[in-house]
């Protein structure tokens, strides 16, 4: 793929996040919540920098595009049963949404798993909004956003350890 093609994929992934109600600042806020107790001097600027670096990864962009497309099809009722119902209800035993999210978490190593597990369970900030069925179908997106925050947190932890 050409550089222009890569730029289009990243731009589209970022635009789709925004169109679905997710601001990058929302993700940076999740990173801050995950890491501030370990790095008391942590700034939102540093959290944003790490979120942007995660979003620059092709694997992450692909997960965003795939997950959001499936959420939109589910929201529009365009999937065949029984998948339509499974995605509409965000069934706990479905798990494919978490597998997509784990592909993002894997980009920055195993520390991301613990960050992701915690944030997926607690659902702080934007994740609470995305989990409210009144705000649309976000079966994949809530996990993807949590995974981006977990990966950015992992990247931050790796960077901080390198400095120490």
TrEMBL record:
Q: Which GO BP terms apply?
A: lipid metabolic process
What this protein is called in its record is: Phosphatidylglycerophosphatase A
The UniProt entry, under Gene3D superfamilies, shows: PgpA-like
Q: Give the classification, highest ranks.
A: Bacteria, Bacillati, Bacillota, Bacilli, Bacillales
**GO molecular function ontology, one term from the record:** phosphatidylglycerophosphatase activity
Q: Which residues form a coiled coil?
A: none
User: Which domain of life, per UniProt?
Assistant: Bacteria
Q: Where is the YutG/PgpA domain?
A: 28-158
């Amino acid at each position: 793929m050409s550089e222009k093609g890569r730029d289009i994929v990243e731009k589209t992934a970022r635009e789709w996040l925004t169109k679905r109600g997710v601001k990058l600042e929302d993700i940076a806020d999740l990173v801050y919540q995950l890491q501030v107790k370990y790095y008391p001097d942590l700034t939102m600027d540093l959290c944003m920098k790490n979120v942007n670096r995660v979003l620059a990864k092709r694997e992450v962009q692909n997960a965003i595009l795939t997950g959001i497309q499936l959420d939109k099809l589910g929201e529009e009722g365009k999937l065949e049963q029984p998948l339509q119902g499974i995605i509409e209800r965000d069934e706990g035993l479905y798990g494919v949404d978490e597998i997509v999210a784990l592909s993002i978490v894997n980009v920055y190593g195993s520390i991301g798993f613990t960050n992701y597990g915690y944030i997926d369970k607690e659902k702080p900030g934007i994740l609470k909004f995305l989990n409210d069925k009144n705000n649309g179908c976000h079966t994949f997106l809530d996990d993807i956003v949590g995974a981006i925050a977990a990966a950015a947190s992992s990247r931050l932890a790796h960077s901080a350890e390198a400095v120490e």
